[in-house]
Amino acid sequence: MKQLPPAITVTRTVMPPLEEYVGYLTQVWASGHLTNNGPLVGQLENELGSFLDGAQVELTANGTVALQLAIRALDLTGEVITTPFSYVATTAAILWERCQPVFVDIEPHTFCLDATKLEAAITPRTQAILATHVYGYPCDVMAIEAIARRYGLKVIYDGAHAFGTRVHGRALLTYGDLTTCSFHATKLFHTGEGGALVTTDAALARKIWLLKSHGHMGDTYVLPGTNGKTSELNAAMGLCLLPRVPAFIAARAALHRLYRAELAGLPLRYPVLPADTEYNYAYFPVVLPDEETAVRLQVALATQGVGARRYFYPTLNALPYHIGAPCPMAEDIAGRVLCLPFYADLAAEQVGFIARIIVAFFQPSHPILSHDQPHTQPTIACA
Question: Which terms does the record give in the GO molecular function aspect (predicted)?
């Protein structure tokens, strides 16, 4: 029997009013300019730069290409210290660019790379640190910067989850030599499919522009590049959604508070937000007491039509094509974490329904459904 998709998905793509998007498409049809760094791409890059405290922004076809371009732009050829707790693209991009990933374990509060373990992993072949802001929680950017300066290393952040987070009064995406973004349809801010590189170095931004544009401008060929550009259609989506980002974050913050209230008293752990951080509420992860409990809860939610994802699992130091050193903290968290449904237009009633399933899982005598709650939840389109 074919398995039906969950009625309540882990993520859901936010869409702008159709007429607003069509308004931008009308401009595209009038200009006939679909790609090759068109006017809407330039407009979105400028608006993103303003949103990110004046940083240089180069849009790309997706977040994975952004990672590859970052490694190439910094001329990395040796070892890159990285995290085992991230989406596979983080490690795959290092391998794709023929560099050597060196895994350093994560710390137990934010699940980001543990800066206190960095120096022990540095060798004469180390050229860079590539760390992920997990679930939008910031890495220890100050400690990483200090270590990188001491050893002459480059710093790349995988900021796929971090759009909208601020730390120490500054956009999180502006730290490091480069930060890569994913603007995939499931992200807080998206362009349908897409990504970006963010830097405060104008010369580096120019190099990235060349790298993503086949390495030439007109008939002047500067370096070997690739096609990493995005389209006017994707930029139009981003221009519609960027002004709505503060509202998206506010809605997610309210849902985050509701989840925490509904799940109070249960044996669940949560990441800890560092001081001086304005969070973007990108995801809602919960850490269960053990892996068996996490898997059973995922099944219990699925039987009620609720999707939950083991994100991230497995750890990247256990990839079959690249086995790294053991990372006990990351392996422990990866086995026990579940991301619950979380997006701006998730209804409060749906959060309550999900919470009742979880409460009943831990307290079997507790009814999953209240007397006035229907046994079938309203269907939500899958993301």
Answer: transaminase activity
Look at the pTM and tell me if it is higher than 0.85.
yes
Q: How far are the Cα atoms of 134, 286, 339 from residue 332, in angstroms, in the given order?
A: 16, 13, 15
**What mean pLDDT do residues 68-72 have?**
98
Q: How far is CA 160 from the centre of its chain?
A: 3
| DSSP class of 136 | G
Q: What's the pLDDT at 227?
A: 97
Dihedral sign of CA atoms 186, 190, 195, 201 in order: negative
What residue ranges do the domains of the chain occupy?
Answer: 18-243, 244-362
pLDDT digits (tens, 9 = 90+) for 320-367: 999 999 999 999 999 999 999 999 999 999 999 999 999 999 998 766
The CA-atom distances, in angstroms, between 298 and each of 13, 36, 120, 236, 257 are 22, 44, 37, 37, 22
Q: Which of 294, 270, 290 is nearest to 109 (CA)?
A: 270
Cross-strand partners of 338: 286
Q: Can you tell me the distance from the alpha carbon of 309 to that of 11, in angstroms, rounded to the nearest whole number?
A: 10
CA distance 288 to 136: 20
Distance CA 131, CA 307 (A): 28
Q: What is the CA radius of gyration of the chain?
A: 21
Contact, 309 vs 339, CB < 8 A? yes
pLDDT (tens digit per residue) in 122-172: 999 999 999 999 999 999 999 999 999 999 999 999 999 999 999 999 999
User: Which class in CATH covers the domain with range 244-362?
Assistant: alpha beta
The Cα 177–Cα 194 span in angstroms is 21
Domains 18-243 and 244-362 share a fold: no
